[in-house]
Design a protein that fits this description.
Layout lengths: L1 E5 L3 H12 L3 E6 L15 E2 L10 H10 L7 E3 L5 H14 L4 H26 L11 E4 L5 H15 L3 E4 L1 H7 L12 E4 L3 E2 L2 H14 L3 E4 L2 E7 L4 E7 L5 E5 L2 E4 L6 H4 L9 E11 L10 E4 L4 E6 L2 E10 L8 H14 L10 E9 L6 E4 L5 E5 L5 H16 L19
Parallel strand pairs: 1-2, 1-13, 2-9, 4-17, 5-15, 13-20
Antiparallel strand pairs: 3-8, 5-7, 6-7, 10-11, 11-12, 14-17, 14-18, 15-16, 16-17, 19-20
Helix pairs in contact: 1-7, 1-10, 4-10
């Protein structure tokens, strides 16, 4: 069967690889000149299988609103907000207050995270990919005493699902991260012992090369503009080349992995995907002294900034900004990220010389990604992973491939069903 995958980010490339491994002929359509060059380019670099959760959290609503007005607050809102921004905000609030939904969605996402870790480990054995990858855990710091109580509840949930975690004292945190000698407040941490790291951009490009060697065709610099379909099935995809020429590519099935740009393809077929581009920022810089940097991933709950070790580099990421597709990078955002890193790992890198980046996480208002069959019998969706695309990519690729082949998915997909926003 010839399957076209729209999108060559980490979700699209893992999907293409899984489908090829199952014997399908696969063509990937990617609008950039290389794989993993949009949301996957310079994300937080954490494969946080135990951390995944829906943003539509009733406990976060009252915390989030003051963050908008705090100078170093992790949530920013472009003023005046657009209609799309307001729709996303109100939809998120509605899902947050839906009784019991947060808990159900969180467990569903964690189960997919468990499966994704298994698939990443299998890929590690199958392929020798260079992407500064590791599985040395993640530490979620507690900068206030009351934070530990919240971590205790998370620790109990992780135990229930069989995900290894530990509550650490400040002394144990510093033993695990000897380079963390800064004066930032510290009352302990929750350790996600089996979480991973890795450069998502390097992984996507390396996997693309491996997939091409196995027969996957990847067409770069082309934009999918329209799905050609009758009442029952998709028969082809219209695409625009870099030269502006229009082509039609025939397909037996299609998988949409286009992140924030997925909705424009499926809306004409009667399915609305309320995916919003949540903006984030990162800094990437070589370490001056590898002993002074993080061992793995540190989530600083004081600034809500993540610092991740990537070989001899540091990647620091922060902010949730609702500004549609605005790609500006205000200096104030970068200053907060630098301040967080310096408060934990002083002198580890010349952060003023870091490479700055901004990107858009394809976020759904209720939290879970959109994984499953679309509005035609041979149309599938694997998109809307929000901040967890790198984390969940290997698992969601496997389950969508299972679904396409008529198998029972390894993870229940009820929470991820594409049509749930139209119900």
């Amino acid at each position: 069967m010839h399957i076209v995958v729209v999108g060559g980010g980490v979700v699209g490339m893992t999907t293409a690889y899984e489908l090829n491994r199952r014997g399908h002929r696969v063509t990937v359509l990617e609008r950039h000149k290389i794989a993993g060059n949009e949301t996957s380019k310079a994300n937080a670099a954490q494969r946080s299988y135990g951390v995944v959760y829906p943003w539509a959290d009733p406990a976060m609503v009252f915390k989030a609103l003051p963050w908008i007005f705090k100078q170093d607050g992790p949530l920013k809102l472009h003023v005046p907000p657009s209609v799309a921004t307001l729709k996303f905000m109100f939809a998120t609030l509605r899902y947050a207050w839906s009784p019991g939904l947060f808990g159900l969605n969180r467990r569903a996402m964690l189960r997919l995270g468990i499966h994704s870790r298994e698939r990443f480990l299998a890929l590690d054995k199958e392929l020798d990919l260079a992407f500064d990858g590791a599985h040395q855990g993640l530490l979620h710091l507690a900068s206030k005493p009351e934070a530990l109580e919240g971590y205790r509840a998370v620790h109990n949930l992780l135990n229930e699902l069989g995900i290894p975690s530990r509550l650490l004292t400040p002394e144990q945190v510093r033993e695990a991260e000897p380079g963390m000698v800064g004066d930032g407040p510290l009352y302990g941490a929750l350790s996600y012992d089996t979480d991973g790291t890795g450069d998502c951009h390097l992984f996507s490009r390396a996997l693309a090369t491996a997939a091409e060697h196995k027969g996957v065709e990847i067409r770069y610099n082309v934009e999918a503009t329209k799905l050609i379909a009758d009442e029952h099935a998709v028969t082809g995809i219209t695409l625009r080349t870099a030269e502006g020429a229009m082509e039609t590519l025939q397909a037996d099935a299609a998988v949409i992995c286009a992140g924030c740009w997925s909705n424009q393809l499926v809306r004409p077929l009667g399915l609305e995907l309320p995916i919003y581009p949540v903006k984030g920022y990162s800094l990437t810089v070589p370490l001056n002294d590898t002993d002074r940097g993080p061992v793995s991933t540190i989530h600083d709950d004081h600034y809500k900034v993540v610092a991740t070790r990537l070989g001899n580099r540091l990647r620091a990421t922060g902010f949730v900004e609702l500004a549609d597709f605005n790609r500006d990078i205000p200096e104030a955002r970068l200053a907060t990220i630098r301040k967080s890193v310096e408060s934990r790992f002083p002198g580890c890198a010349d952060l003023d010389a870091a490479e700055a980046w901004t990107g858009f996480r394809p976020m759904t208002p209720d939290g879970p990604a959109i994984i499953g069959r679309g509005p035609r019998e041979n149309l599938y969706l694997n998109t809307g992973h929000g901040t967890f695309g790198w984390t969940l990519s290997a698992g969601s690729a496997d389950v969508i491939a299972q679904l396409i082949d008529g198998e029972e998915p390894a993870v229940c997909l009820d929470a991820f069903r594409p049509g749930r926003f139209n119900e």
